[in-house]
Amino acid sequence: MPRTQALRRALAALVTAGALGAAAVTGPAAPPAGGAVRTERDSGARVIEERAAGERLVDLTVRSPALAGDGAVRLLTPDGWEERRPGDRWPVLYLLAGGDGDHLTWTEEYGIQDLPELRHTLVVMPAMPLFGFYSDWWRRAEDGPRAVETFHLREVRPLLERRYGAGTRRAVAGESQGGFGALAYTARNPGMFRGAASYSGFVHPSAHPRAVRAAMTYLGLDWRRLWGDPVAQRGVWEAHDPYHLAPWLGRTPVFVSSGDGRAGALDPDDVRPDPEIPGLEDPARPFPEDVISPTEALMGEESRAVAERLRRQGTPLTTHFYRGTHDPVYWERELRRSLPMLLRSLGPQPG
To answer: Does residue 350 sit within a domain?
Structure first.
């Protein structure tokens, strides 16, 4: 992958997350809104195009009220899906892309359609607007709403369960910003997902609000629209922070992995440092001199903090912390490493 695209995903990780409407929920004292147990209403979302994209691949275009426009979803269908009958259901694995929101990443870059382990699972790969942060933004933009959580979980999910054979046994995993989304979605919607995995996710953003501000400013975005001010809207921040939401992960199996920002085994010999983002580094806590990927250094620190909290509360946890940068080559490896756990969480697989 070109380094510029990897950087775009790195920047996306730094501005991960969001808020549900404008409600200032105060942390995990009460269950987050959502969950598979509530009665579903017709969201108004509709599939307006369905197109075969290759063997077992189907691309959907969804007319989305949450996005005030169209959103895309790629499906990797299981064996026997084309001959499905009413009532047929398959276990579902949601794979969330990085901050570029590209729903084609998992098949075009990682080739997950070639993994024999996925021949009995419906894999759902939803797109999102660039830097959408897997959330409904606290303050909406004039150029259209950013209601990604609603699009994915209140629009796409019910559509797939009504028309495309998606069952209620679900797991979720994501890279970079998608890693945040995987843990946040699972914690904010108790009972919806049976397993979750984060690969270099920004999973404790309220620990580094200056990083959120620096990255969004660098990208020309108003960072206060995301969750509001980290002091005045502290409850909103914590209501979307997997570290603070850890109690709601409960006994759900979780996989957390990240590098440390140093050049690692999968980086090329001529790997270059990430471009400088003004304001990213905390002068009181400078990065070590051998860190060439500050983004991954932050992701590693936050992933370890979340892992330690999950471990203390008894959540079934698998971790893999390594020397490496914020680069897709590591995320492909971590997907394969975590896949057995994710599939086990879905229950017995046929075949």
So the answer is: no
243 vs 183: CA distance, rounded Å: 9
Q: Tell me: the pLDDT tens digits for 199-211?
A: 999 999 999 888 8
Which tokens in the block code for residue 166? 């998606």
Q: Return the SS3 of 308.
A: helix
- The pLDDT tens digits for 135-189 are 888 886 655 568 999 999 999 999 999 999 999 999 999 999 999 999 999 999 9
- The continuous run of DSSP H or E covering 162 comes out as helix 157-163
Where in the sequence is the domain holding 29, given as residue range(s)?
3-345
Tokens in use for 131? 């830097």
Classify residue 116: in a domain, yes or no: yes
CA distance 256 to 196: 9
For CA atoms 93, 99, 101, 102, give the dihedral sign.
Answer: negative
CATH number of the structural domain spanning residue 89: 3.40.50.1820
Q: What is the pTM of this model?
A: 0.90
- Are the C-beta atoms of residues 243 and 302 closer than 8 Å to each other? yes
Of residues 9, 4, 1, 100, the one with CA closest to residue 295: 9
Domain count, the chain: 1
Between residues 244 and 10, the one the model is more confident about: 244
Tell me the C-alpha distance between 292 and 232, whole Å. Answer: 34
Distance CA 208, CA 204 (A): 8
Which DSSP symbol is given to 248?
A: G
Strands (E), the chain: 46-54, 57-64, 69-76, 90-96, 122-126, 166-175, 195-199, 254-258, 317-321
